[in-house]
Amino acid sequence: CVCVCVCVCVCVCVVDVLACRLSGCLITAEGCSSLASALRSNPTHLKELDLSFNHPGDDGTKQLSAVLEDPELSLEVLRLDHCGKERLKSGVKKYHCELSVDTNTVHRSIQVSNNRVMRAVAEDQPYPDHPERFEDCPQLLCSNSLTGRCYWEVEWTGFVYISVAYKKIWRHGSSPQCRFGENQQSWSLLCSDRGYSVLHDNKSVDLLTFSSTDPRRVAVYVNYPAGTVTFYRFTTNTLVHLYTFKTTFTEPLFPGFGFGSWSWFSPDSSVHLCSTAGEASV
């Protein structure tokens, strides 16, 4: 892949394209060294080089940064966001991100432990008043503002909604404008012992029944530039596609979780954020 990516970049340089985007191409320090050499030996009009979601390492970063700082070269923007060894994984797993719960949004019937485990409980939690807190719907949002690509995995029990939503989703009352999946502001996967279904704009699609032998673990992949939200389930060590929403996003997305239905509460339902992407393959 490194050789392919280097050739792509050289081709871009030859035709004087202003931007070269190689995000998520499994590029290592060796590949970055080749890129730096190519840019120095073939000065071009290239102004932007995007190498996010790769693994340049310290050496690769140093060499490319030197190219960026060289006044004799035209490069003005070098993107090395979300880089690291884990970005060498295949498929969507390279886009794994750590989610962080926005405690100002958590409904009082949800208990949060160590920013990783969320559980519906019968006793209200002593959260302070906040205008962004969900008042009646047992839901919460994470603080991650998504405008790129992001992948995460969760383990679940009970009756839960795995969602993404615009920040402007309603927080007061229990109308459809507040509930995940029942408005134009959110996209959701419903997980329960009865099976999986997806919801958006108050329209639902039943997917399949849940097998007691399957892991209670699902994954979400957001590709914001492409306008997609994809849900997966796990079977043993394999990711299986469940459903993909396709749209055009108009503002940042925020991961969210809901517990039970708007008409009934589901105590002991829970979501556990997995700290690292598993070894499942797509």
TrEMBL record:
* Annotated keywords: Metal-binding, Signal, Zinc, Zinc-finger
- A single Pfam family it belongs to is PRY
Q: Which domain of life is it from?
A: Eukaryota
| Residues of the B30.2/SPRY domain | 79-280
Against CDD domains, the record matches this protein to:
SPRY_PRY_SNTX
Q: Which GO terms describe its molecular function?
A: zinc ion binding
Q: Which GO cellular component does the record give, naming just one?
A: cytoplasm
Where in the sequence is the signal peptide annotated?
A: 1-19
Q: Which PANTHER family match?
A: B-BOX DOMAIN CONTAINING, E3 UBIQUITIN_ISG15 LIGASE TRIM25-RELATED
Query: Mind telling me what this protein is named?
Result: Neoverrucotoxin subunit beta
Organism of derivation: Takifugu flavidus (sansaifugu)
Taxonomic classification, please? Eukaryota, Metazoa, Chordata, Craniata, Vertebrata
